Amino acid sequence: MKGLVLIHGRGGSARDMLSLVGPLGAGDLTVAAPEAPGRSWWPSSFLAPMAQMEAPLAAGLEAVDGAMTSMGLPRDQIAILGFSQGACLALEYGARHGAGLGAVIGLSGGLVGSGEGMGALQDALYGHADKRFDYAGDLTGLPVLVTCHSQDPHIPIKRARDSVEVFGGLNAKATLIEHPGPGHQPMPDGISAARALLRPVG
């Protein structure tokens, strides 16, 4: 990779994400780190109904587009990595616009969704209903990494698992690293896997 877009989580900042450059071995890459107004890409949980999510999500996706454009690099040389709320944004960008990208990495995240589902509220989704994941693109060969704790207080492990399944259905090379127990932070095995995507051998 030659470029890396880093997307912060709720209450975070571009500076926070830049602290991952060293652990990711990305010191010689062109890095862009967009920052959300008020340090939050949307005011609610990413599990909220799409009526609440559509406008802030559109603004976030536009910010990712702008960060990529600012690099002036080929798409296949750019990876997108986000944490928490930023991971959800990175994964959603990947599902909608990821064709030709170098890699998409969501540390503690899951897909937002393309529309409302028809099911009931679920305990496994922290009292929210499921979403539709209707994405039209072909992501053949796109490396996608999703990490999540099995008892993450913000990201239901069900959504992380479903997200990997959705990406697989789009022909991406999708991998889930499930950290045992409670937690909500980047973990060493997730960082190592992300670093391997940024520094492929051969």
Quick gist of this model?
This protein is an alpha/beta fold and 202 residues long. The protein has helices at residues 14-18, 50-71, 85-97, 157-169, 188-198; strands spanning 3-7, 30-32, 78-83, 103-107, 115-116, 131-132, 143-151, 173-182.
Topology:
Layout: E1 3-7, H1 14-18, E2 30-32, H2 50-71, E3 78-83, H3 85-97, E4 103-107, E5 115-116, E6 131-132, E7 143-151, H4 157-169, E8 173-182, H5 188-198
Parallel strand pairs: 1-2, 1-3, 3-4, 4-7, 7-8
Antiparallel strand pairs: 5-6
Helix pairs in contact: 2-3
What brief labels describe this structure?
alpha/beta, 8 strands, 202 residues, two-stranded antiparallel sheet
> Roughly how many Å is the radius of gyration?
15 Å
- The helix-and-strand class reads alpha/beta
What helical percentage do the residues reach? 25-40%
Query: Strand-residue fraction?
Result: 15-25%
Most strands sheet: 6 strands, parallel
Q: Would you count the extended β strands for me?
A: 8
Average predicted confidence as pLDDT: 96
- The helix/strand series, from N terminus to C terminus, equals EHEHEHEEEEHEH
Number of helices: 5
Regions with little confidence, pLDDT below 50 for 5+ residues:
none
Distance between the ends: 12 Å
Q: Give the overall shape.
A: globular
Widest sheet: strand order? Answer: 2-1-3-4-7-8
Write up this protein.
The protein is globular, with a radius of gyration of 15 Å. It has five helices and eight strands; from the N terminus they run βαβαβαββββαβα. It is an alpha/beta fold and 202 residues long. β1, α1 (14-18) and β2 (30-32) form a beta-alpha-beta unit. The chain is 32% helix and 21% strand. The protein has helices at 14-18, 50-71, 85-97, 157-169, 188-198; strands at residues 3-7, 30-32, 78-83, 103-107, 115-116, 131-132, 143-151, 173-182. It has a six-stranded parallel β-sheet, with helices on both faces. A two-stranded antiparallel ribbon has the order 5-6.
